[in-house]
């Protein structure tokens, strides 16, 4: 692998203008095709295999007029003093209903005084607005018109609020979050490289990769039926890994220049060594994302495969376009500054007393006390992970929004006036079985449900044209996200609950949320086993070791568990909720564990490969374990730190969103990457390798014969290219470790 990438880097450097023209041409072609492509179709939110999905499929077949994914809004009117049925208040409500009926894309509006949608005390009423399009097809004009009508209806003594999917804001802060991430990345890159041109290359190539990927996804949206949100994950990850991968190659190029290599050989060696790590790190990310289809949720599958393609594109850019741009930049990219020695001799032969850098001091501290550091770090992560044992999954609704939003205020008004379960009604679809009487079955089902504990009301059955299927609305007595409502859904679905003469399917947003949470919970362990298993086999080939991949997998599990524990503590238990803007603690978004496993695993393996490959490289040159750990860490710690800071900043930027879902994702990914990069990879990894010694790089002979030699550390490149003409860099590079002291711990004293 290293030899092939060495040749690739040299070719790209020599033919730099050709390579740049080809990538620029690809970007232009993708942009032109993307601009001509049609709009992405609505997202497929179907959840195959769930009872709620079966009910929706039956509704689509028997009740075509009912749109399960249609856009709806519920406008709530409350009299501040007196009743909403008073003449003045009633006139204001009627005027608002007429205005809503004439709004764009509105198909039907119910008048609360005609449908009886007035609370028992007469203070609150609501109008149901149904649009003729799916929620993804609702235009901004229609949303703005709805909000304008609501604002105009507000008058002294009358409170008007609205909720529903028609008024759900689009993910706020998406572009601003990316801007914040880019700004932080730019600052970190300038600090790392100390030069604008070297810092600009990773940003430029990352944006190029994301641009090409986004255009390609748009082109493929219609033929492959990719939903409108497919590119969200690919943009976020493509930007992050694109910067990271370019950062590692450019950093290694500057190190090779500092060793005295010519620019062409420095670029070739950078691609052959750091590029090899990039390829295998990218493969672990691709494995984690491409395995998302095992969950069985189409939206997740599309997002995972699109993001995997974007990461693969970032790898290609890192090993081809980066060396070409390095060649064009020429002398404007300077060699890295010489590293401070951790011990050596000056020109007179006396011992130097130069102070080592922070990375060297940190790794020396760890390798002197590896067992204590390991126990302390693992204990801290396990403690933080403890709340994860109480994880409750759900999908956030209007109840999780800040009280400053109209959706939350509408939710509270309806819950206070009509009962807590009114915001989460269940839809019961009754179909007669064995040629029975559907009408009798529906009436019997309604009676049974009214007599079920936890049910507040049941509406009369509504039949289709053929009178063979009926729909009932069941309003629970408890809130949608409560455990009592979940138990009620299971009770209504229990075998025998529907009787012998009917088949009853329970749907509705609440039931679908329960099904999604259960499906994701059941898929979590198989998904982890598949991803970790495949990556474990890949890392055996990368490091030619059994214990290093095992350590990597165990460290990842600690990181994810700690990240989930922090999410539960903040978003479910409400700890530090004011600090992070959590208005109402509640169940954690059901997609979060799978999402966190997929994304964090790929990024964790990035840092593992970049960090440990340098340690493996040092060990191959001079097989003294602790010295190899110190040398590899000293060479890679600064770059890995910069990459982790960039990644955490990108994810943390999403915490500024007003949407609890986006806020949860941003916090969860940021805290998990923080734990993994700085606690696991840069603290526990050197401690474990120092404890294992030579055993860390052990591979059984029988397995050694079967595992391919991929040569990530660039052993096959030694002696290749132009020999360094300048002085060797200060520190512990593979070229000067042969003259190191015989005792591995002597360098640490």
Automatic annotation (TrEMBL):
Quote any Pfam family the record assigns: MMPL
- Which superkingdom? Bacteria
**SSD domain mapped to chain residues:** 237-328
Specify where the region named Disordered lies, as residue ranges: 336-356, 717-749
Q: Which InterPro entries match?
A: MMPL_dom (IPR004869), Mycobact_MmpL (IPR050545), SSD (IPR000731)
Tell me where it resides. Cell membrane
Q: Which coarse location class describes where this protein primarily resides?
A: membrane
Q: Does the keyword Transmembrane helix apply?
A: yes
Q: Which PROSITE patterns match?
A: SSD (PS50156)
Among the entry's GO cellular component annotations, what is one?
Answer: plasma membrane
Q: Mind listing the UniProt keywords for this protein, alphabetically? A: Cell membrane, Membrane, Transmembrane, Transmembrane helix
Q: Which residues cross the membrane?
A: 179-198, 232-250, 271-292, 304-331, 371-391, 524-543, 555-576, 588-607, 637-655, 667-692
Q: Which SUPFAM superfamilies match?
A: Multidrug efflux transporter AcrB transmembrane domain (SSF82866)
Its membrane topology is listed as: Multi-pass membrane protein
* Stated family: Belongs to the resistance-nodulation-cell division (RND) (TC 2.A.6) family. MmpL subfamily.
- Protein known as: MMPL family transporter
Q: What is the lineage of its organism?
A: Bacteria, Bacillati, Actinomycetota, Actinomycetes, Kitasatosporales
